[in-house]
Amino acid sequence: MPENLTRREFFKEMGVLGTAAATGPFLLGADEKLPSNKRPGWIKEIDKPTVEIDWEVMKRHDASITGFNPKFYGDKLDKLKEIDKTNEQSRLEKGTPGWDLKAHAVAAGWGHGFANLSLAESQFIGPEGRFNPEDRGVSKWKGTPEEAAELVTAAMRYYGASSVGFVKLEPGTTEKLLYANDGDRKIIEYSSAHSEPTETETHRYLPQDCRTAIVFTVQMSRELWRRAPTELGGSVSSMGYEIGGLVQARTQMFLKTLGYQAPGEYRRNALGTAPGMAVMAGLGEMARYNRLITPEYGPVVRVFKLLTNLDIAPTKPIDAGLMNFCRTCKKCAEMCPSKALSMDEEPSWETTGEWNNPGIKAWYDDGVKCRSYWYEVGTGCGICFAYCPFSEKNLAGLHKLQGWAAGNLPVLNSTLRTLDDFLYTPNWETLGQPMKDPEDWYKLDMPEYGIDTTRGKIHGDLG
Q: Are β-strands 163-168 and 44-45 bridged in parallel, bridged antiparallel, or unpaired?
């Protein structure tokens, strides 16, 4: 286990931590009397996100240019695919825990359900049918932007979203968070010639008034992430995407029934940049792993987005001390088997490859190194998520204090990191191995979907 502090320094700061633990509840008391839909007071709303953005430099990204694009691998791709196939078959035949037939069966189940609803000819356009209010003999729903935000959030939480935020897409700035080309090379374009979302062989056209982006997260199972990288652990990400597809389809039907348009993602990770929209919507901050980190769930979420012409009050970016925590922590980068994450203390404007979109000051990841390791290990990885200190929620009091300290006492960041090492990283030397035994997962008494939905944003409970 790496030493961030000397023993004397550690116990000295533990004294400060103990004082914070004693006084924290008094500082939190006022927040816990707020209505249940308010977040704790250390999560501060701000006008600009904690990650620096240069809108002049940023451009709308081509979503087909990612670290997964075959052009970045050259002659190595066929070899990597063969390694992937050989390793997967070998582990299956040997009955390797996390890779055996049981694990494959669990992973196979996530892709079957109703995410591709039969009523939806196009997931971009959404369900078709008698949903508009005129067909029912009434006028479309009308309310203030604030009432719309409340209504949409309540409905989407009911449909399965963990947190919900809203961003106004303005030309020259936040509109650049939309992809220029979607993942299948279709151009996304606002058009005055189209009053409804329209999809052709080459374009996905957006009406000019569809300027509100609805951004939401879906929480994933932390216990399964701790079994990554295995076939069993890899299923949790795919399951999250499936649930997100269901939430989108339900929300599209909901908005159309109210009388509004709702173009969405035609598949996972489409339409626009997920971390960027989520940061601007205040769902979290940018982290060292160049993804979203949230106060409620850490990085263990999938992010989704759809658009609407319903006028919804935007939510603001937040500062919960999370990006600042990443400056000193570095645990995800230290545990990354492929060394694809930056170890620099400060974020940078310099990108690491054309799969990264310029214009933000971030810790850019090496997507090709990351994806190459996926081929070698035979599934998605996710170790950076599993080992993030904000992924741990077992000790409720400690992690409520951790959230408060990150937002109010950044001097304790290194101590909190060391404490996380002590409590949660007993097998530090087994780089690239699952954090927990995959076989133990089958014995757990897990809640529905493997997540505790009573925790998080709505209740202000970060424990």
A: unpaired
Residue 460 domain-assigned?
Answer: no
At 6, which helix (H) or strand (E)? none
Nearest in space to 238 (alpha carbons), one of 224, 252, 223: 224
| Among 333, 341, 325, residue whose Cα is nearest residue 404 | 325
Per-residue DSSP letters for 297-336?
TBT-EEEEEEEESS--PPPPPEE-SHHHHHHHH-HHHHH-
Return the pLDDT at 432. Answer: 81
Structure tokens at 255: 């908005």
CA-CA distance, 298 to 19, in Å (whole number)? 25
Side chain identity at 22, as an amino acid letter? A
Enclosing domain of residue 153: 7-73+110-450
* Dihedrals phi, psi of 191, to nearest 5 degrees: -140, 130
Residue 265, CA distances (Å) to 125, 244, 257, 461 in order: 9, 10, 19, 31
Contact predicate 60/176, CB 8 Å: yes
Instruction: Yes or no: say if 317 and 47 are a contact pair by the CB < 8 Å rule.
Output: yes
- The helix (H) or strand (E) run that includes residue 25 is helix 7-32
User: HSE on the CB side for 453, CA within 13 Å?
Assistant: 13
- Helix or strand holding residue 213 (H, E): strand 212-219
Tell me which H or E stretch contains 366.
none
Q: Provide the domain count of the chain.
A: 1
pLDDT of res. 130: 63
Structural domain contains residue 104: no
Query: Distance between CA 438 and CA 227 in Å, rounded?
Result: 5
Query: Which pLDDT value is given to residue 294?
Result: 95
Spell out the residues 6+ positions from residue 83 whose beta carbon is closer than 8 angstroms to its own.
Answer: 375, 376
Q: Mean pLDDT of successive 10-residue segments in the chain (463 residues)?
A: 44 48 44 51 91 95 86 88 89 88 78 49 75 81 95 94 97 96 90 94 96 96 90 89 91 91 91 96 97 93 97 97 95 94 96 91 94 89 92 66 85 88 71 86 89 58 37
Domain contains 160: yes
Is residue 141 in a domain?
A: yes
Length in residues, the chain: 463
Burial call 143-179: b when 16+ CB within 10 Å, e when fewer: eeeeebbebbbebbbebbbbbbbbbbbeeeebbbbbb
Task: Answer for the pair 362, 290: CB distance below 8 angstroms, yes or no.
Answer: yes
Match 């924290």 to its residue by tokens.
24
